[in-house]
Amino acid sequence: MTDVEQRVRATGLLPAGESVLVLLSGGRDSVCLLDVAVRLGARVRALHVNYGLRPESDGDEAHCAALCERLGAPLEVERVRRPDGAGGNLQAWARDVRLGAAARRGGTVAVAHTATDQAETVLLRLAASPGRRGLLGMSPRSGHLVRPLLGVTRAETARWCLDHGLAWRDDASNADLAFARARVREGLVPALRAVDARAEANVVRTAALLREEAEVLDVVVETALAGRDRIALEHLEALPPALGRLVVRRLAEAATGGLCGRAGARLPDLLALRDGALDVGDGARAVVEEGVLRFERTPPLPARSE
Questions:
Q1: Residue 67 contacts by C-beta under 8 Å, 6 or more apart in sequence?
Q2: Is the pLDDT of residue 196 over 70?
Q3: Which of 8, 23, 55, 166 makes an SS bond possible with 161, Cβ 3.0 to 4.6 Å?
Q4: What letter would DSSP give residue 168?
């Protein structure tokens, strides 16, 4: 068994005999993931989404079909077209379509994010959104989604494919500087690598350490709340500010069911709110009654009368 196989097997994310749906773009990383999953004995199916965004899209689909036939993995193809005039982030739209298509099929879904992707993600989040959470990077498991290649670099997936005679398709849009990730990939990462050749590995290792430490912080937050969905302002004010911010965010996210990254920054405002309500963003509203803080969803705006 090769080193890459051993590292992926050690994650426990691709158990032999268990069903897994591999998201297959046809790029080097997903080709490597599919091959490794088959070699490890998982019951593999593949899903390819043809967005029709590039002249090469049909060629990508044909390549995936030929690869799956060679590896003995059933392939499902979903063809979608972006609505004319649709705004927003193209890559985010494609990601949502891809994950939605996978979720409809159910079961464990494996995506080919690598250690290189992890480093880029951490750097991108560090630049775009302050706070500890952005530095945690991607988790090896997020619900039904698994990332078995987070310990493998993009250079290693390319070497795997070359060593095993597996061709892949290159998507030129991955280097399009119109996209923020491409600017990180083509500009920032090489600059950091010039400072220290271990830059990417150091970023990935830092994210892993922070995820471990985050588990400890979660326990501290749970202890501070003692199972309650609210907290007395007197108690909140007595906590160290860093812990107070985490408690506020935990309460806000429990109430809304979503991420509330901005809630913790409103700690001083909440401590000054002796009675009343305050919207803290991300759909969360803080309510203080008789010196006790709780959260609820921000009510929808009233319908405008014609």
A1: 24, 26, 31, 34, 166, 167
A2: yes
A3: 166
A4: -
Tens of pLDDT, residue by residue over 254-271, are 999 988 988 999 999 999
**Cα–Cα distance measured from residue 56 to residue 37, given in angstroms and rounded to the nearest whole number:** 26
DSSP string across 16-50: TT-EEEEE--SSHHHHHHHHHHHHTT-EEEEEEEE
> What six digits make up the tokens of 279?
């919207």
Q: Is the torsion defined by CA of 146, 151, 154, 157 positive or negative?
A: negative
- Residues 6 or more apart in contact with residue 223 via CB below 8 angstroms: none
Residue 135: per-residue pLDDT: 86
pLDDT confidence of residue 218: 93
- Supply the Cα-derived Rg of the chain in whole angstroms: 23
Q: Cβ distance 192 to 199 under 8 Å?
A: yes
How many residues in total does the chain contain?
Answer: 306
How many angstroms separate the CA atoms of 77 and 240, rounded? 52
Which residues sit opposite 19 in a β-bridge? 43
State the alpha helices, DSSP H only, in 72-151: 90-105, 115-128
State the DSSP H helix or E strand holding residue 278, giving kind and residue range, or none if neither: strand 276-281
Q: Are β-strands 292-297 and 230-232 bridged in parallel, bridged antiparallel, or unpaired?
A: antiparallel
State the Cα–Cα distance between residues 74 and 65, nearest whole angstrom: 9
Q: What's residue 174's pLDDT?
A: 81
Tokens at 146, concatenated: 């698994």
For the stretch 131-165, pLDDT in tens is 777 788 999 999 999 999 999 999 999 999 999 99
Reduce the DSSP state of residue 176 to 3 states and report it. Answer: coil
- The arithmetic mean of pLDDT across residues 51-76, rounded, is 93
Tell me 146's DSSP state. E
- Tokens 């921000």 correspond to 298
Sign (positive/negative) of CA torsion 253, 258, 261, 263?
negative
Return the structure tokens found at 194.
């010039």
Domains of the chain: 3-202 (3.40.50.620), 228-306 (3.30.465.60)
Output DSSP code: residue 276. Answer: E
